[in-house]
Amino acid sequence: MRTHKTIYAALAANLLIAIIKFISGAATRSSAMLSEGVHSLVDTANQLLLLLGIRRSKREPDATRPFGYGKELYFWSFIVSILIFGVGGSISIYQGIVHLRHPPPLEDPFWNYVVLGLSLLFDGGSLFIAAKEFNKVRGDSSWWAAIRRSKDPASFVVLFEDSAAVAGLLVVAVFVYLGHLFNNPYFDGIASLIVGVLLTVVSVLLARESRSLLMGEGIADSTQRQIVRLVEQDPAAQKVLHVFSTYQSPEEVMLMVMLAFQPGLETDAIYDAIERIRAAIKKAYPLIHYIIIQPEEPPVKN
Fold first, then answer.
1. Helix orientation angle between 153-181 and 31-57, rounded to the nearest 10 degrees
2. Three-state DSSP class for 254?
3. Mind listing the domains of the chain with CATH numbers?
4. What is the pTM of this model?
5. Buried b / exposed e across 38-59, counting CB within 10 Å, b at 16+?
6. What was the pLDDT predicted at 66?
7. Where is the Cation efflux protein transmembrane domain (predicted)?
8. Helix 110-138 with 5-28: angle, nearest 10 deg
9. Closest CA to 247 of 284, 285, 277, 273
10. Other CB atoms within 10 A of residue 3 CB
């Protein structure tokens, strides 16, 4: 049972940081800090949407959705990716352009540094928790391969968001320092543009992964081959012709096996074999909740 510790940690950190950033940005008239405030506010909304998606995905199947509501989580994770671009990235880029055209006078950066330090502490802590939790399921795979393989957007969305947050904070810190070092207010607008581009890249990556899940990713090829071997071990099975699968949620898989049975079997024997094979698959792969065994005629040899 997933505890979603990463989501709650990110939610608490982003809400607190957003408030602090907006206060500091308004006081110092820093577009970069205001952009970071928008970024944290969007991230806060994203955590709430992920929690909403998780809650709605847990609803029991009914007449309208006989296979359950698991894909709700994939839908809301896709909405999150759009929000990161549509709100976070766009506003940051807009703020950067405005402040490059009309740069405000430089203010005392002391409170900006204080807020950036606190934000790095909170966002860094949230990123550490997200990375630690994701590392538990990563195994020997690389981080990117594990993200591509993951069917739980709640884990990698937070990982992407927190990584972008920490990177954005470092960018803002460097450019705020450069702006005051060279007494150049344009550095502030440039920082906002970089943060906006960073959020846009993250949103595109998340949208691609969420879209793939929403459209129906199947089980891994290695798992499919293992299922084929398992099915063909049954004495009534002749040959697996096709295997179709799709993730209904991170914890639910639908599987359809087109199977040619041994010739001459009676209907009752085929029915018993189907029940036997279905039970064997469920025992070996508990995530496969829906299993359809479809008897088919074996291909005719030329």
1. 180
2. strand
3. 5-215 (1.20.1510.10), 221-296 (3.30.70.1350)
4. 0.79
5. bbbbbbbbbbebbbebbeebee
6. 85
7. 8-215
8. 160
9. 285
10. 8
